[in-house]
């Protein structure tokens, strides 16, 4: 199934997305991230972990997400591949203007379900 998480004109939005273990998920955070600064974090029981940041048109992917995550500036989409069970949880994206003023905060809850599938039968989800 296909979902679209769009929050272009809202200050705070929470969206829910489900994906199969081992699959890929694409989450559209905005229609275009050009000219903005973004910080994406995943909430943990003891704080949070940085997923990616966007500053001056440069995307920096952090830690365990580095080799399986992309952020597309032109359409504001976050893509995570080879989804793992511990990817489940709440992700927070703070969007700032070029002067560092907070424009909005988005929360996306990702629910990883099921058993790992064979690579040839992995579905791709869009949220």
3D structure, described in words:
- 0% of the residues lie in helices and 52% in strands.
- By secondary structure, it is mostly beta strands.
- It has a single domain (12-114), classed as Immunoglobulins (Immunoglobulin-like, Sandwich).
- The protein starts with 11 loop residues before the first strand and ends with a strand.
- Mean pLDDT is 80; it is low at 1-12 and 116-123.
How would you sum up this structure in a few lines?
It contains no helices and 10 strands. It is an all-beta fold and 127 residues long.
The tally of strands reads 10
CATH architecture: Sandwich
SS content category: mainly beta
| Count of folded domains | 1
Major β-sheet strand ordering:
1-9-8-3-4-5
SSE topology sketch:
Blueprint: E1 12-20, E2 24-28, E3 37-44, E4 47-55, E5 58-61, E6 69-72, E7 77-80, E8 89-96, E9 102-113, E10 124-126
Parallel strand pairs: 1-9, 2-10
Antiparallel strand pairs: 2-7, 3-4, 3-8, 4-5, 6-7, 8-9
